[in-house]
Structure formats: C-alpha cells, structure tokens
Write a structure and sequence with these properties.
The two termini are 22 Å apart. The chain is α+β, with helices and mostly antiparallel strands. It has one domain. A two-stranded parallel ribbon has the order 1-2. The protein contains 3 helices and 2 strands; from the N terminus they run αβαβα.
Length: 67
C-alpha cells in the first residue's frame, strides 16, 4: 500500500487527475478502505476464469474459491 499512498500525493498536487488500479480482487476486501482513502476512484477487476477446470489449467497450484 505504500505505492498507492505515494502515488496519491500526485492527485492532491494536480500532477495526476485520477488514480486507478487493476486487480484480481484477491486482497480487495483487506485493502478497499485504504484504496478509497488514498484516492483510488476506479478499480478494474481482471478474472482469468470462473470455471474451476479451466482455472486449474491456467493457475497450477492455485485454488479458486467463492467470495
């Protein structure tokens, strides 16, 4: 989160108009408030697949869970 906090200072200085983030969402519930507090106004959530069999092939060793 230090990177987000560091980048957010550029919003208040006017060097950045907007701070966006692309994520797989796996840690989103943990960091959502910090992201909002640091000026992130837009999130892009990128998913490989919701199909368990395809996921196993794409992400060997990872576990697809329901949120």
């Amino acid at each position: 989160m230090n990177l987000i906090a560091s980048l957010s200072r550029h919003i208040t200085s006017g060097k950045l108009e907007e701070l966006t983030l692309t994520t797989n969402g796996s840690q989103l519930s943990k960091y959502a408030q910090q992201l909002a507090d640091n000026g992130v106004k837009r999130l892009n959530v990128s998913l490989d697949t919701l199909d368990r069999e395809k996921f196993k092939k794409l992400r060997v060793g990872a576990i697809l869970t329901k949120c």
